Amino acid sequence: MSAPMRLFRASRPVVNAAQTARFSVAARTMKDGDTGAPRASADAFTKREAASESMYVHEKEKEKAEALRAKIQKGEAQLKQDKADMDALQQKK
Questions:
Q1: Which of 8, 14, 24, 34 could crosslink 30 through cysteines, CB 3.0-4.6 Å?
Q2: Stretch 37-56: mean pLDDT, rounded?
Q3: What secondary structure letter does DSSP report for 23?
Q4: Whole-angstrom Cα distance, residue 87 to residue 38?
Q5: What Å distances lie between residue 42 and 45, 46, 47, 49, 50, CA to CA?
Q6: How far is CA 50 from each of CA 42, 44, 56, rounded to the nearest angstrom?
Q7: Do the Cβ atoms of 74 and 80 come closer than 8 Å?
């Protein structure tokens, strides 16, 4: 490749095929919530999948709530112990 040709290629902006849509008239617009996928009909499989997903989310939320309850109980037990230690120190004075 000759030097002028290399210089010409280096000075050109890099453009890919997606940027040079030759036959597009207008930009494709989507409404809020559109993902581009066709809407699935409400058959038994989609209903079952939605129910399964809801059950999974419910179970995870239930596990998180149980973990928070345990953490609160542990904190309350620690607080009770700290209060007892404070009372013991105050009685010694």
A1: 34
A2: 83
A3: S
A4: 68
A5: 8, 6, 7, 11, 10
A6: 10, 10, 10
A7: no
